Amino acid sequence: MARPSSYHHGNLKEVLLEAARKLIEEHGAFGFSLTEAARLAGVSPAAPYRHFKDRDALLAEVARNGFERFAACLDTAWNNGVPTPLSAFENLGKAYLAFAREEPASYTVMFETGLAPGTEGETLPAAERAFEVLQQAAEALCRSLPEDERPPLKLVSLHLWTMAHGVATLFSKGGRAARKVPMTPEEVLESGLLIYLKGLGILPDAKEDGSG
Amino acid sequence: MARPSSYHHGNLKEVLLEAARKLIEEHGAFGFSLTEAARLAGVSPAAPYRHFKDRDALLAEVARNGFERFAACLDTAWNNGVPTPLSAFENLGKAYLAFAREEPASYTVMFETGLAPGTEGETLPAAERAFEVLQQAAEALCRSLPEDERPPLKLVSLHLWTMAHGVATLFSKGGRAARKVPMTPEEVLESGLLIYLKGLGILPDAKEDGSG
DNA sequence: CTTTGATGTAAAAGCCCTTTACATGAGTCA
DNA sequence: TGACTCATGTAAAGGGCTTTTACATCAAAG
């Protein structure tokens, strides 16, 4: 498919997205320039316009594309709640943070406001799918509660999302929190979620349990 | 002080910061340009360089400046935990979200990674002060626990920060979460924090209490 | 073999960032 | 009053980026 030395690139769109992620990772979202991405891909500054309407469209595609893989990651990690909802939930949290760490550029463009003003107005289908995985997890976790004690699922999943996103962003890169505490993001998220689940009555209190 | 029609502006630095916040608010962090900020202030494109080393330095100052007001807001809201730690804590959460809503540009530049790569490496004193308010709150809230049940304070304050920051960013602007649930950010944060505090054993379980 | 459409290039207009040399004016000191 | 000085602003220019337009290349289809 890819013909590096021919006049036609053959795989430019993908290569440009890759270059964009690399540049954003290295120089921040501001440091990204279409021209430099084109340079990395070995084409002229005008070439990207055959594949993207403009620079914002490329960023939007990085986001869309990122949400696809993100949703897939979360879905795989959750694995329909097997073997147990709790262990699957732990995997889910780790997968969330792993994605944010391994694809910081994607995560940044996906979630950080103020990057592409027009773009973030629409909610992407893949973003919905990612959120639905969290909602499935919330549902499975809450199923052990008597019905009259169950808080709204959307609310619980928002709480989960909130904690995961908060840890992911506060700890990302040289993030503000990274040097404040000698713990990994995973430990912070997991401990926070455990406390939250205790508060919901899904996990027993430590003093009652004694094993944890 | 300000002489709008004279050769020397008299108040340019402040006006530029204000203009930057306004532009970022309207067009996103990408939409901000030093030249346009200068235009808004009624000066030439080179004038800002008498007050800021470069464009990144202006953004860094927006962040620094924002953290100062942010820390002051949080400190005022917390009010040393009076009348009660719990009510003060509620105020603290509201103040956090209020700041993010009222100064979205500041909040964006303060917390979003990938904006000024070099800048976020250093931790600002004002940012430390803001975090210390959260830590004070965590300490006051945990004081009612027996010592052997108290989790590390830094960890608890990180959890609190995580939830507040998560809600603030997920709900900001046309944020991804805003249309997902018919609740205000304040309601999402407060309910999440209540559940978390229950999990810590600071608040009684709903079924034991019964009063909501 | 020619045509055609997708894909890439070159060139140019316009904006932005930043530097450099120069202009202005307020305050100081004689 | 008058000259000096320093902070602050301007004008002009170089270089980069974005985007458009006209043209070039090449693969595939007829």
Task: Describe how the helices and strands are arranged.
Two copies of one chain form a homodimer.
Chain A: H1 12-31, H2 34-41, H3 55-78, H4 85-102, H5 104-111, H6 125-142, H7 153-171, H8 185-200, H9 206-209
The structure holds a DNA duplex (30 and 30 nucleotides).
- CATH superfamily annotation of the largest domain in chain A: Tetracycline Repressor, domain 2
**What distance lies between the first and last C-alpha atoms of chain A, to the nearest angstrom?**
54 Å
For the biggest sheet of chain A, the summary is: none
pLDDT averaged residue by residue of chain A:
88
Can you count the helices of chain A?
9
- What fraction of residues of chain A sit in β-strands? under 5%
Estimate percent helicity of chain A: 55-70%
Q: Biggest protein-protein interface?
A: A-B, 62 and 62 residues
The whole-angstrom Rg of chain A is 20 Å
The low-pLDDT segments of chain A are: 207-212
